[in-house]
Amino acid sequence: MKPLNNPESCFVCRRRADGLGVGGDNAIGWLCQICADQGHGAKALDMPTPEFDRYEIAALAAAGDRAGAYLDSLTRTDLATLHPEEWTHVCRLIVTGFGDAIRREVAGAVVRDGFGKVTHAALELPVEMSHAQITAQEIEEESD
Ligand SMILES: [Zn+2]
Asked: Could you tell me the distance, in angstroms and rounded to a whole number, from the CA of residue 83 to the centre of ligand 1?
């Protein structure tokens, strides 16, 4: 479900919204600066909700994989054994991983109108997004 009409939160990635919005009177999709700059607002708004839901689920899975890779690098999966800083890092990886992944999913999507005409093409990913797939090795380096 697209979380529209919440001026506090980006409806694409859930970061803090930056006062930028797309849409009309009753359905405004508020955006963060990153999603606005990368052109995800109108595309995500025009995307059928079930399609957005699929990308959101894929992004959640990618964020979970990112956090799981970090836990694997610690060789501990029992969350109760984590040091508070390790737990904070797991949470950070999930939150930032979701944002990175949903932007990647929306960027790669092709949105069509009811007649099959492409209204939003797949976007070229910015260079920094091509590195969004973080390996366990990179996560170890991040946590040092
Ligand atoms: Zn955003």
From this structure: 30
Tens of pLDDT, residue by residue over 28-61, are 999 999 999 999 999 999 999 999 999 999 999 9
Tokens of 65: 């994989």
**What is d(CA 130, CA 142) in angstroms, rounded to the nearest whole number?**
17
Residue with tokens 């920094």: 128
- Structural domain boundaries in the chain: 47-143
Q: Which residues surround ligand 1, an ion (CB under 5 A)?
A: 10, 12-13, 15, 32, 35
Summarize pLDDT for 3-37 with one digit per residue, the tens. 999 999 999 999 999 999 999 888 999 999 999 99
Residue 136: which residues within 8 A CB-CB, separation 6 or more? 69, 70, 72, 73
Decide: 25 and 34 in contact? Cβ < 8 Å. no
**What is the 100 CA–ligand 1 centroid distance (Å)?**
9
Inform me whether the pLDDT recorded for 130 exceeds 60: no
- 80 C-alpha to ligand 1 centroid (Å): 31
Please state, in angstroms and rounded to a whole number, the distance separating the CA atoms of residues 26 and 35.
21
